[in-house]
Amino acid sequence: MERAREHASTGEPDTPAQRPTAGGAALELLVHGVGGTTPEVMLNDPRTVRVTGDETAAVYRRVDDAEAERRPEEHRDGPVREAYVWCNLTSGNGTRALWLLLLPFMVVNLAHWMRPATRGRTRTVRLYGLLVRLAALSLTVLLVAAVCEVALDLTAWQCAGTRACAREHTWLGFLSPTVSGGGWWSQPGRRLALAGIVPAALTGLLWYLSHRTWSAYESHRPMSRTAEPAEETGRTGLGRPGFWYGRRLVARLRAAHAAAGFLTVAAAVGSSAARHDRRPGGPAVLEALGALLEATLVTGAFFVLWVVCRRGRSENRLDKELDHVLVRRLPVGSLVLLVLTSVYAGWSRPGWRSTGRLPGDLTFGAIAFLQGLIVIALCGVAHTLYRTRPDPRTAMRGIAGPAVAMLACALGGVMSGGVSQRMADWLDGTRDSLPGPPVLLTWQASAIPPLLLVLLVLGGRLARHTWRLREREMAAVALDHEGQPRDITRTRRIAGARAMATLTDLAPVMTGVLSSVTLLLGAAALVGAFATGDAPGDAAHGAYGFVRGGAQTAQALGSWLIGFGFILFVTWGRRAYKDPAARRTIGILWDVGTFWPRAAHPFAPPCYAERAVPDLTWRMATWIRTTGGRLVLSGHSQGSVLAAAAAWQLKPSVRKRIALLTYGSPLERLYGRWFPAHFGPAALTALHHEVACWRNLYRPTDPIGGPVLLPGDCGPQVDHEPLKDPLAYGRTEQHPLPAPILGHSDYQADPVFDVERAWLLSRLRPDVPAPRPQDGGSQGSSGRSSG
pLDDT per residue over 273-329, tens digit each? Predict the structure, then answer.
């Protein structure tokens, strides 16, 4: 092991003396998938030892195999097995459920990587990334504005300035001019300055957590190497030297988003004071200071936009430098401006009274309008990119990225509107003494019941589709097991598992419908709010009085549903980190989302692959360099994605010495369709040619894994025929008890797994990779005798 570390640190090239001999050692490096597991389960041995790594991610072996390289004669019957355990990168204690509050940030970051595959079009690709970064910036502003709405408008401005509300909530008594008798904090500007601490603290917390999580998860540098000429063709960026090290961009976006948050708080604190000072008869000095602060805020906002728009990712090399000190100090400068604005707002203005609500309607309306424009523009750019290289397997014909960005904006709107509505109801109750949150948030709440109705319709159609497909699959299952005693219950269960597994392929349809309906409902809410200037129930009064009751009911129901959904969201998130079954249920979305680097939003949850991929790359490269043996990279589910990404990061000479075994793999079914620019047919075909050999196993009952479906003769060489699931239909001598329907789990229980692993090892010659079969033999072991 020490030799491996020495070679890893020096980065010496391969030499002929290090090439394997005919009896070279063989290693199988196992990478688990979604939900995680333990090394004892992966290695099927209660006694394991950590070979390398730490408590977060590490490589383990059986105790008996700890020094296998020193005793190769004891391991000639099969490969030495190692388990790379990375589940602690995405799971842990229940406090990590708070990361689910960052879900809109994660989803919009996901949209960045859903760009369609294209030929050339460098400027259009950059425009796509720019639009996603702007959508991400709008979500940060929306979140901070929502907290400002709760803390500044509803609490400090409206409730503290109303006698009934302040008396009901005694903890606000020192802020109320009617309760405290005109104390020092009772002036509106001072109340706003004090309440501004809450959104400012939230922004600072996100800033700190982004820096801390990057240091903990994403600061591990990949192996230094030069870019290969093949990588410049644009097949995939996953093999570029700097793909898994985005230090400079994350630091740049982190500074810009933190500054945007502080500037939003400063605008919320100082805008009302500046508007008050512009009234006739006000002090000229304060009016001039207000104008100066507003001009400075506008200048800071344009500078933040310039920082976000100026630069995207740099992947052709390790980008170890940081931006100019002016960019790095941008959050500090914005925080200083916030302090100056608070001092200005807290200046004594004896005749100032808080009435009505703060100008939040314009703010939330402008954010919603800009987000809609960005999504529409993103659709046009994505469609343009898709036309250069159309692929029918691409999800939603290239506009999956804009659809997901729309859902991220909708999530942000629902969360911000829900918090505002719940806080207003809690402060005011049924007294109707407060103006309440901005009208647009009320209209957005009334749009939630129609959206839920659409979800129910979609759920009904999916249930109907699944039932019909199960009926068709029953005939197929009966045909597969023809000649065996008929068991209708057993047949129905197998057919039902196959039918349920196909629901994954309908995700593009559901996403397209939801994003379209969300866009239309959001536009209707925006038009309704600004056309009427009233809440839905009030706007329906008069000529449309017959819908007034329905509109009010929808608004009230939507408000309660937002609050209930928020509680359910956090509860399920916490359970997902404590209950393995719950984690497997929703883990695929989370692990897909946090697989990708933070290229659009710096406050998204950390990317575990920026630790896992370098770990696997270093382990494979150093082991092959020091032992010269044969290596099978064995990945299940999400582990197969990590395995492919790590293989792309190896040097070509090392890449040709490994075999790839994937099972239950979403490489094509999820990643190839939703992320075609990085896992499309061209990228996966290139991977097939660049590794020594590759086999992929899947089941028709697996809802996540599927065939790789490479074009031409590559497909049969990679994809094994669908595995039997269950292994036995009825009771047999080998299976005297009913065999379970395995679905996505326990692929190693199938005898085909050992056969395919042994065949891959036989293909790894000691000097050069074995030639590929030309007959495309894919039917289990029967076509392997010539391998």
Answer: 998 888 887 788 888 999 999 999 999 999 999 999 987 777 877 777 777 777 778
- Rounded to 5 degrees, φ, ψ at 321 are -85, 160
Model confidence, pTM: 0.88
Distance CA 731, CA 706 (A): 28
- HEC profile of 561-622: HHHHHHHHHHHHHHHHHHCHHHHHHHHHHHHHHCCCCCCCCCCCCCCCHHHHHHHHHHHHHH
Sign of the CA dihedral running 119, 123, 128, 130? positive
DSSP 156: I
* Phi and psi angles of residue 293, each rounded to the nearest 5 degrees, phi first: -65, -40
Rg (CA), the chain: 30
Torsion of CA 152, 155, 161, 162, to 10 degrees: 150
- Check residue 217 and report its DSSP letter: I
Give me the helix-helix angle, 400-428 and 122-148, nearest 10°: 10
Residues 522 and 444: beta-carbon distance below 8 Å: yes
Q: Which fold has domain 2-10+22-90+608-783?
A: Rossmann fold (3.40.50)
73-102, pLDDT tens digit by residue? 766 677 899 999 998 887 655 555 566 778
Q: What are the structural domain ranges in the chain?
A: 2-10+22-90+608-783, 104-221+246-446
Give buried/exposed letters for 235-264 (b at 16+ CB in 10 A, else e): bbbbbbbbbbbbbbbbbbbbbbbbbbbbbb
Greatest Cα pair distance, the chain, in angstroms, is 98
| Residue found by looking up tokens 């590794």 in the block | 691
How far is 757 from 286, CA to CA, in rounded Å? 78
